[in-house]
Amino acid sequence: MSLVFQGEDAATRRQAAVKFLKVDQCEGGVNESTQLKRRFIREVKLMASVRHQHLVEVYDAVLEAVYPYYVMELIDGQTLQLRMKLPPVPGFAAICRLGWQVAAALNAAWQKQRIVHRDLKPGNIMLAGDNVKVIDLGIAKAIGGNTHLSQITTMSGMMIGTPYYMAPEQHLAEKTIDCRTDIYALGLILCELLGMRYPFEGMNHRELLVAKKTGCQGKWERRAHGAPTAVLELVNAMMEPAPEDRPQTWTDVLQVLAEAEKHAATADRDGILVTASQVIEGGTRLIADPAAATTELDGTRTELG
Ligand SMILES: Nc1ncnc2c1ncn2[C@@H]1O[C@H](COP(=O)(O)OP(=O)(O)OP(=O)(O)O)[C@@H](O)[C@H]1O
Ligand SMILES: [Mg+2]
Fold first, then answer.
1. What is the pTM for the complete model shown?
2. CATH T-level topology, domain 2-74
């Protein structure tokens, strides 16, 4: 439903990423377009409400337009989804480091605004040099509290989130969605990285839910031979079917991963993280004249995703 381009700030010539909403391709008519626009606006507000080193930074947004868009820092790297398909196989320390950085971003989002990402998956994690960035708060939700962030409209009949990495309670659209739902998703990603394979490969939606409810604890571990025991235990706990059996806070996850990274670092020769040719530093920047920016962007597009 969106397009991401590389663009250039007309005034400063600084590169940025620009995400447009493709409302014209929405087949559901005016109502659905309006809902998509509302959701897009919420995405921007949620992203702008938390600043963190490992969460992509929003610079500016033009939302009252035929094609709403927002401008964010350009991440000079690749998605984890792409990285997973390329050699070399990541080392344990690199996996712990990656997990720690994602957990740190989501901890900040949860602590500061009670934000749950709800679509954490390798395609929404980007790697730039040694730095991980979580992107795409497209279906994120703020739980309670801040009302301008927590209002959410859900399109009828449309599934929210990507089934592969969803926690069981999210499959079942239960109301108990909180940080433990994202903890589950990160557990599954770490399980895939450590075991070098998605644990529920080849299942349809229904089989996937049954397998997640049963739990895959233990079954995948032989493929993660040599991984630190504390990490295996952590990942198994993160993937517990019931939220109350998982680590209850991001702090619990962060502690184990930080400790494990230190121990694994010496044995870990392979880095998962690509060397970025250039990492754009953060810093708030406003495009003074959105019309000028649009013109400039129109002329210099390189599609990223
Ligand atoms: N800030 C950025 N810098 C560089 N590339 C980016 C950036 N944001 C997004 N991308 C690229 O664009 C792709 C799509 O972005 P994003 O996930 O935000 O859109 P989406 O439409 O919600 O995608 P999906 O539905 O596949 O999750 C990403 O997978 C990534 O390759
Ligand atoms: Mg995405």
1. 0.84
2. Phosphorylase Kinase; domain 1 (3.30.200)
